[in-house]
């Protein structure tokens, strides 16, 4: 995030968000309208490498430090076993600014044994005076709809990214300039333009020391070329061409679209872990599982009626809990939730998310994990079992229970013995 004094207003989501909340997200400032995990009891694995094992990469902005600590080992479901209830909390444009929400939610995650995914905007590691290093597709060099950062902001963000990864969280990407809408927004970008944007997002992470003049600072403890396996596009636009580009660059998932609460499948070789439609208590429609979309449907602006703040936050919390309950008691499909480090409507959505984490992550058989850990678990499963679970609709529990639904498949009858030769 940018230092609070340098925030800029980003373009909001498309106009249809006012009806059903299908827009993506914005960055800082007032929103414009319009638009490795196992089953229960899985043991944690991976330990931090000793300093002697650290291998600096490039200018020392990043480093190989061994296996990531505090991950859970993915385990294949046994025949008839009920799947865990996965919940993914994720953050767009993750950065530490004067609100200190990044560091706050890191503490929340540790308190409730929840790991999350932080989608970093690359320009948050690029100082204002070096802005011309960014050459966004279809825009002039040095242009960004969310601005850039200052050196202190970069220091603070790197500190939180470093700690987050060591806690077991994932660092994904929200790309760079956050360009939305019809006028040269990311929805108009070609596959090659997406590859350029991805390459630049990686470059700003891999060279933040040089760009910010912080050569003596500690590195980020991961190789970003290997760490980066997933993303969410600005305003949920441009998913198709992004996925085509990402599928050639080692990505494993995307979360930039709109799904129902059913078991995921792959698209262009990537797991499609898009945001999901969830209830809005007291309203006749559902909206996306993201703080921005609740806000747009409730107040349109990020500075709505103060007397409604508590009600709106409770409405979001209760909607997410309803979505959780129908999965937990039903098809056990992973629940995907997206957020921003923002104090919209007095910070009520931050309160709603914290209360949701505190409620669901402590329940039996619930695993609050990052997208990386979820895809590790999905990849460890029998594809036939996953396909069968995809037959279950939103909130639909197996009619005969999980043991019958995912029980041992019938054994094929043995072939009859070959007839004996008569003499």
Automatic annotation (TrEMBL):
Signal peptide: 1-22
InterPro entries: CE4, Glyco_hydro/deAcase_b/a-brl
Keyword annotations of the record: Signal
Alphabetized PANTHER family for the sequence: CHITIN DEACETYLASE-LIKE 4, PTHR45985
Protein name: Lipoprotein
